[in-house]
Amino acid sequence: MSGLEKSLFNLKFTAKQLNRQAAKAGKDEVTEKNKLKKAIQQNHPDIAKIYAQNAIRKQNEKLNLLRLGSRIDAVASRVQTAVTMRQVTGSMAGVVKGMDGAMKAMDLEKISAVMDKFESQFEDLDVATGYYENATSSATAVGTPQDDVDRLIGQVADEAGVELQAEMKTPETGLKAGATAEEEREEGLGERLRALRN
């Protein structure tokens, strides 16, 4: 532990001690006020004055301790910032050295070739995945009759007390237009997949 970190520890420890002492002074103030109240109830004005002075003194002591603790805590925060900055500076120096070594070892032509190859493989994978998803969704659609799907949706909606909207039922014209666009997309994917195989 460096000298700065030891100082930081000592400052934090002192601030905690001051806060504890301030809390104790606050409890003592409450105790003196309770004694003051009893003295007033028992009609002892001289004793009441003493307890009142004690309560005020404890209140002032508490405030002074809190102020001092706050100042020490502020100094501790500044020291903490200095410690952190020193650590960050050391880390940054190591990173800069590492980056220098990495920059010297880099071959931009190789990196470019690898990135181009990666992009090409990613596109091929995207085509294959799209074809697979399309094939499985078509197989699922063929395997499940539309009447059964509509009946189940209606049954669940009735159980839930929900009225089905007209939007749930697809108009025939919209269905045909969507099917045409889907067929074109499927045909394009099929061609790309055939090109990949060859």
Describe the structure.
The protein has helices at 3-41, 45-105, 108-143, 146-160, 172-197. It is mainly alpha-helical and 198 residues long. The longest helix is centred in the middle third of the chain and has 61 residues, at 45-105.
Share of β-strand residues:
under 5%
Low-confidence spans: pLDDT under 50, at least 5 residues? 169-177
Number of H/I helices: 5
Structural class: mainly alpha
Distance between the termini: 67 Å
Instruction: Please tell me how large the radius of gyration is.
Output: 40 Å
What sequence of helices (H) and strands (E) makes up the elements? HHHHH
The dominant shape is: elongated
Largest sheet: none
| Average pLDDT taken over every residue | 79
The level of helicity is over 70%
Beta strand count: 0
Which helices and strands, and how do they pair?
Layout: H1 3-41, H2 45-105, H3 108-143, H4 146-160, H5 172-197
Helix pairs in contact: 1-2, 3-5
Write a brief caption for the model.
The chain has 198 residues and is mainly α. The chain is built from 5 helices and no strands.
Fill in the keyword field for this structure.
89% helix, mainly alpha, 198 residues, elongated
